[in-house]
Amino acid sequence: MSKTEKHEFQAEIAQLLEIVIHSLYTEKEIFVRELISNAADANEKLQFLQQTAGTDIFEADRALSIQISTDDTAKTITVVDTGIGMTQSELVENLGTIAHSGSKAFLEQIKQSKGDARLIGQFGVGFYAAFMVADSVTVYTRSYQSDAQGYVWTSDGKTGYEIAPADDLERGTKIVLHLRDTEFASAYRIEEVIKKYSNFVSFPIELNGKPVNTIQPLWTKNRSEISDEDYTEFYKYIGHDVDSPLYRLHFNADAPLSIKAILFVPERNTELLTMNRQEGEVHLYCKRVLITAKAKGLFPEWLRFLKGVVDSEDLPLNISRETMQDSALLRKINEVLTKRVLKWLEEESKDTDKYAKFFAQHGHCLKEGVATDWSHKEAIAKLLRFKSSHTEGEATTSLSDYISRMPEGHKDIYFLHAPDREAAEASPDFEAFRAKGWEVIFLEDPRDEFVLEHLHSFEGKTLVPAAKAEITIDRPEDRTRSLSDAQVEGLVGFLKETFGERVSEVRASQRLVGSPASVREADGAMNASMRRMMKMMGKDDSLGLTPKPEFELNPDHGIMAGLEALRHSDEALAKQVAGQLLDNAMVSAGMIEDPRVVFGRLNLLLEKLLPAKP
Ligand code: ADP
Ligand code: MG
User: Fold this and answer.
1) Interatomic CA distance for residues 561 and 483, integer angstroms
2) pLDDT digits 0-9 by tens, 484-524
3) Which of 316, 331, 363, 435 is deepest in the core (most CB within 10 A)?
């Protein structure tokens, strides 16, 4: 055998190794990812040569694979590829020097991030991660070139390395790590690490002879080659779900960024069951190797129900969990993805029955988006669905469809909060709308009111609470029981005096049909939806921000005619009746939360009405 050559590491590498061995204690497991990535790169390069006509390849028929074996008695782990291999000068160049500024940049970075080993591969120095776990590394390699000589490279990762010729090597590279402890000599542990980072590497990986990466990286294939079952299997694997997904999207983008993504919407939203906020489950890959699982910042929070993978070759070298959030590039990816997802959901919404299922599960996330994501709120609002006075039962409408039904003269989008459809239809605030045939969105959840108020307008139409609508109805033909203008004026004065501080205003209504009276929110520091939200969050109105309501009387209602007469004959009783009418209106408007408080007066009135003796 020919002589062994001794080499010294380039100064930067020696410094790098010093840090790798002594101060990088976190996530040592990533050395597995780095060695597998190198093996996959070597195989890929060979694959490329195979497609280049006229290239003479040693052992041309040898299959491209990655073999890993562990030996816990010898405390070794071995990684073998059948790729391009290295010549002697390539060995020196690739594993002894760093041509680019990678190591320097990496040194800077790890000083800042206090030794985040995950970054190592991103700086083109991944091979040296082996020394985090090994006190000596041996590399056997034989180049693909037909007349090449094989070599063995050995180093303890301290000062230098030795290179000697080695005969009878097969094409490719075999790397043997002599481990410091047995953790990574355990096949079970290694399998776990491979599955975590390298499961989608495009060559078969075998661990002690057993295939490990059985799931295909579907996002790198053509859509036409993938069956529904493939997608479902892939979803179940990456989404940790037993059900099939409700929707899926497989898309590629080249500009402004190269992105390949497969995204899924799960059938169920676990937040509805657990009340815990979900974590987004979209994993970020760069060329099929995991960069960050459940990558934060990839999507806005309100899309946290999505599961899937995003693979971008454009990721910068220094992307990591810590730096991700402020990366301008990540914001760009986020923007591209968000737009695409909005478009996707809009397409899916055409199948209304299926979309209803989607909205029942994930709709609350979209509503949160409208309330929190200023730049997308109108686009998200397109995806919202509501019950309305024009829908039946559980059926819903979009705001766009609502607008398409607006008759002449109907300018705003109206909404009304009530616990259910019956209560909404019985509300005095709805009467004028019913009379005119104008549609009103019915909101059962107080949060929805908050969302629509926050949205403020949609497709140029202002969103207005029904209780605040400037709406007038045509007076009924039969005005026999109606009061004269003078009588209305007198009654208004009487009620003002009677109610005193309880109301801010009393006036004759233009919008009531069946109800004798109603109260409306006066504009004030806090409106009804905010009050209801505060209440839901367990906060009461201790600051006294609730404005006093405005009282409206229906001059065409028999009760008002009767009250006008009564106030002249029995003023005390008229005051009690008036007080009761105010209470009733407040309960109906949801301003008195506990209706029991109004029963006292009602009972007094009943007592007066009924004969004194049996
Ligand atoms: P990077 O992979 O980012 O270039 P590494 O430190 O991981 O940085 O590897 C350095 C170089 O060593 C690679 O670019 C490659 O040329 C060479 N190399 C490493 N492992 C192998 C291998 N298994 N087969 C062939 N070449 C390899
Ligand atoms: Mg590498």
Assistant:
1) 6
2) 889 999 999 999 999 999 999 999 988 898 899 999 877 65
3) 363
- Ligand with minimal distance to 151 CA: 1
Q: Which residues contact 270 (CB under 8 A, 6 or more apart)?
A: 276, 278
Written out in words, the top-level CATH class of the domain with range 218-348 is alpha beta
Atom of ligand 1 nearest to the CA of 79: 23
Q: How confident is the model at residue 192 (pLDDT cuts 50, 70, 90)?
A: very high
pTM of the full predicted structure? 0.74
Confidence of residue 183 (pLDDT cuts 50, 70, 90): very high
Ligand 1 pocket member 584 (CB < 6 A) = no
Q: Is 391 a pocket residue for ligand 1 (Cβ < 6 Å)?
A: no
Looking at domain 5-211, does it have CATH number 2.40.50.180?
no
Tokens of 68: 């890993």
- Which ligand 1 atom minimizes the distance to the CA of 81? 23
The Cα–Cα gap between 349 and 365 comes to: 16
pLDDT digits (tens, 9 = 90+) for 394-442: 999 999 999 999 999 999 999 999 989 999 999 999 999 999 999 999 9
Beta strand ranges found along 490-577 (DSSP E): 505-508, 517-520, 550-553
Closest CA to 387 of 436, 423, 339: 423
In the chain, residues under CATH classification 3.30.230.80 are 218-348
Residue ranges matching CATH 1.20.120.790 in the chain: 479-614
Torsion of CA 345, 347, 350, 353, to 10 degrees: -40
Structure tokens at 390: 């024009």
At the topology level, CATH places domain 479-614 in: Four Helix Bundle (Hemerythrin (Met), subunit A) (1.20.120)
